[in-house]
Amino acid sequence: MKKLIAIAIAAAALGTAGLVHAHGAKPAQYGGVVQTASDMQFELVKTDGKISLYVDDHDEKKSVTGAKGKLTVLAGTDKKETTLAPGNDNALVAKDAIALPSGAKAVATVTFADGQTVTVRFSVK
Questions:
Q1: How far is CA 74 from CA 27, 69, 82, in A?
Q2: What is the pTM of this model?
């Protein structure tokens, strides 16, 4: 009987292991730094001197049409801010060219067209 209970507990533990692994940040898709907030994945990317914030919702590109936001970058004692506006597909694009140095902290606040506001924090590598 004890053996049967031990087997049942082990089977239940193995069966739920995949559920725990299913949540959280997925690997970067656009070459940036990834964080999750409000069940969405945000990826902060700097390419060609421009900063973009990509938004995915459950592995699907989230529409950023009508969204707006603000990006704050803290590097040591230096603080820079810029607005975020819709770009292509699921990307919000920074209005101003600002530095995103290694070791900096970045905070993005995004308000989607439906009124939902999400704040997400990044540590730049």
A1: 24, 17, 12
A2: 0.80
For residue 21, the model assigns a pLDDT of 47
How far, in whole angstroms, is CA 92 from its chain's centroid? 12
Domain residue spans in the chain? 26-123
CA distance 97 to 93: 10
pLDDT in tens, 59-74: 999 999 999 999 999 9
Identify the CA nearest to 98 among candidates 88, 107, 110.
107
Q: What are phi and psi of 12, to 5 degrees?
A: -65, -40
Q: What is the pLDDT of residues 87-100, one digit of tens each?
A: 999 999 999 999 99
Question: Which amino acid is present at 36?
Answer: T
User: For 26-123, CATH number?
Assistant: 2.60.40
